[in-house]
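Q: what does this look like with LLZGTKA7 bound?
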Amino acid sequence: MESTLALVKPHAFPRADEILSAITSAGFTITAKDVLSLNTTRAAAFYAAHPPPAGAGASSPPVPVADLIGALTAGPVMALVVSKAGGGVNDELASLAGPEDPATARTAAPGSLRARFGVDAAKNAVHVVAPGADAEAQVAFFFPERERELPSGAAAKEYLMGSVVPSLTKGLTELCRVAPADPLGWLSTFLGDAAREARGGDASADAEAEAAKGAEANGEAKKDKQKIVFVLGGPGSGKGTQCARLVEDFHFDHFSAGDLLRAEVKSGSSTGVEIDRMIANGEIVPGDITISLLANAISSSTAPGILIDGFPRKLDQAGAFEKDVSDFAFVLFFDCPEEVMEERLLKRGETSGRVDDNAESIRKRFDTFVKTSMPVIEYYEAKGKVRRVDATKTPDEVYAVVKGFF
Ligand SMILES: Nc1ncnc2c1ncn2[C@@H]1O[C@H](COP(=O)(O)OP(=O)(O)OP(=O)(O)O)[C@@H](O)[C@H]1O
Ligand SMILES: O=c1ccn([C@@H]2O[C@H](COP(=O)(O)O)[C@@H](O)[C@H]2O)c(=O)[nH]1
């Protein structure tokens, strides 16, 4: 089914029912309909992106765009997606609309929409897409969310079947099994990983080139030889406490994303004030800020392993880190109920001086953790990359399990 756009102009709006009926009687289907009013800026943007036709088929002399804008902004407009099986929907609808000037239409095509409902060359009842113009773009201007049909040609099918469908099917199957709270974010990370894996087999040169490119662009090198572990868990689950022990025993470097952000606040940088506000509200700071702080920190590390504490807190940040900075070995996840974490944080708040160790911020941090950060853990769990630890036990008991993973 091919589709195009039609607009019932304001002066003809009271007769929209008759116009719709003429369109459907001619064998077209209306597949989307919206009533809207356009201001001058939006109408001007439409005609700037899709100039009225000049040359063959255009009215003579051309209608000033200001008059077209005036006609389109005079009242309600009905926007239609008009569809028909087979090709040529545009030309067929243009023919049903008739010549641009209703005066001409009344003699040359008396049954046409413009002959029947038009007033003059600007108030000519309907806007239709001129032959040869980009119907899809005009439809998208008024219906940006509309789902498009997949191209149906054999070449398109072969391309999709070979390059996309196998990974997409795998991703959708896994998505249904895991049912994460943020399905699109989850799927996008899954597909990013699948693309990297697909390239990985025969593309060590590519990977090296990409790493070199990233290193050149960011002044950072991918940490291919060091074991990088993401340390995740709810606020107060004990990530920092356990990382300190691992550093002592294994001489790893420990980079806490939260600490790096708090240092940025302290440095008095221009973004510091906004970061401080976000931390107090338990919000997640934009990934490019956190990732660049982390990339900078780990670029000078020579330790045998790197613990990245409290990051990634969002799926897209996980994907971006893997793409731009480094792969990682696994996620160490501290599993702890909110009541336990709340008690620990309120106690820590008595001395920590942190803007977010208070009852109100803690509630917001828990909320963000459940909604935004748990999907990261669920995602990597489905891929077998999570090492889960019961974090309710004493620090010694927790550590006994933790060190077994290294
Ligand atoms: N297993 C444990 N049992 C009891 N208290 C603990 C345990 N582990 C850590 N704590 C205490 O709980 C508080 C929070 O611990 P910690 O700072 O390590 O958590 P975190 O996960 O890094 O927190 P955040 O994400 O807020 O930075 C600290 O005061 C710490 O001493
Ligand atoms: O990747 C990250 C890590 C942290 N934040 C913000 O910092 C606070 C505190 O983090 P802790 O790990 O508890 O020290 C967190 O609530 C976020 O607001 C972040 O945005 N991104």
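The CA atoms of residues 156 and 216 lie 37 Å apart. The first strand starts at residue 2 and ends at 8.
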